[in-house]
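re: that chain from earlier
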Amino acid sequence: MHLARIQSVFSFIVLVSCADYTETRLNSLTARSYCCLQGIKNVQNHERRSRLIDLIRIQGFAALEELVRELGVSESTVRRDLDALEEQGVAKRTHGGVLYSGGMPRLAEFDDRQPANWAAKRAIAAQAAELIDDGETVLLDGGTTTYEVARLLVGRSLQVVTNSLPVANLFASESRTDLVLLGGYVSPRTGVCLGPYANDLLSRLHVTTTVLSAAGISQEGLFNAHLLLAETEQAMLRAAGRCIVVADSSKFGRKSLTLVAGLDAVNAVVSDDGLSSEWRDFVTQSGAKLVIAEVPPEAPESPTRPLRKRETPTS
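^ sequence. v structure.
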């Protein structure tokens, strides 16, 4: 009787010990599994954010819905990633998307002017990029609209010549594009190289297409606000087989510091649908092909100044 009781107590102790061991073992496995899952999650976060940085760096600007589509995750996940990247100084949130702000200088030209007429600039860039064929040698200046054109040319088989550091940054790691960066004095506001060294190199080059922006377009032609840059853009025109001007409608009817060239030196002008009928007629009458880009209706239109009759200077 006593022996049976002892055996029963011993069996109970063994069962309790096994249960404790099993519970401890399960807790240990659960903890290790949790750590493993957390590790996988951290790796996934790191890989996704690295991919996100690549997308923004290559494009310069990316819309939120575009990032959601490319990454295949929810909008809230992309927003959290962008918050983290903005804290690191890699990205800059804007209305409707994000700008790349890492690995290149912060330029006043882009910080101050790029958000203005943004939808029009992107629509113009899309039309201009379609005018350029693979295999061409393309010369790109440093305007914000030209930057949008360059962003759409990334990944294509081209030779790219530019005096713009932000544009060059887009193609610096692109294996399918041959890149030539012009030297010279670098403007701290725009990040473009200009002056006699850039002009001298341009005099020895020939490109298929030059893409130029403009500070203003009047009946006299294209204007720029920087004297040295105007001289460099004149050299760009001389080096080109054809010239495409990209300018949103707000630039028409405006003059700036110095005249770059008349419209008769331009082969094509790409603008947005806010351009008035008078200016459309004037551009086509000058001999340039006019391409109009349709801007999404939710974007505000850029009012153009009315076309005035050319004044005859008095002596």
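The chain has ten helices and 15 strands.
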